[in-house]
């Protein structure tokens, strides 16, 4: 189970990094965020760099969370972020800046929604996909 405050903290940092990548059109800044997303998706949220910062520096100063969340949906969201970041990096590196800007903007929008409103777009996509595949399996 994961602390939703940590997820929001990570989304805030990701939004800032993605905004910098978008404004500067830097594939290298975006590549760094891609690495963060990839670690979170592949190794799990426990090992994601922003989660480590939250767990070591911020959470000890806070009380216990009011509730926790299952790690599956946010981990899936990290994977979705990684896909958009990878497309953005490819766009910037291979001379398709519009693709880079659009993919980075989509990732930024999703991170901003989570950071500002605690609305995880990737988590909702995960739950929607699970609903569809579960219903399809029963039919």
From TrEMBL:
Location of the DUF4395 domain: 2-130
InterPro entries: DUF4395, UCP030042
Keywords associated with the record: Membrane, Transmembrane, Transmembrane helix
One Pfam family named in its UniProt record: DUF4395
Claim: Transmembrane is one of the keywords in the record: yes
Transmembrane segments: 35-55, 76-99, 105-129
Official protein name in the record: DUF4395 domain-containing protein
Species of origin: Frankia nepalensis
């Amino acid at each position: 189970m994961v602390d939703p405050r940590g997820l929001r903290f990570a989304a805030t940092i990701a939004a800032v990094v993605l905004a910098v990548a978008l404004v500067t059109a830097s594939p290298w800044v975006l590549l760094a965020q891609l690495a963060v997303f990839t670690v979170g998706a592949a190794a799990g949220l426990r090992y994601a760099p922003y989660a480590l910062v939250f767990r070591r520096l911020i959470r000890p100063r806070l009380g216990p969370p009011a509730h926790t969340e299952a790690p599956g949906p946010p981990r899936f969201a990290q994977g979705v972020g990684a896909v958009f970041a990878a497309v953005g990096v490819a766009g910037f590196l291979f001379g398709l800046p519009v693709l880079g800007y659009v993919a980075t903007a989509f990732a930024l929008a999703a991170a901003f929604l989570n950071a500002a409103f605690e609305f995880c777009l990737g988590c909702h996509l995960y739950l929607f996909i699970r609903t569809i595949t579960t219903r399809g399996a029963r039919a």
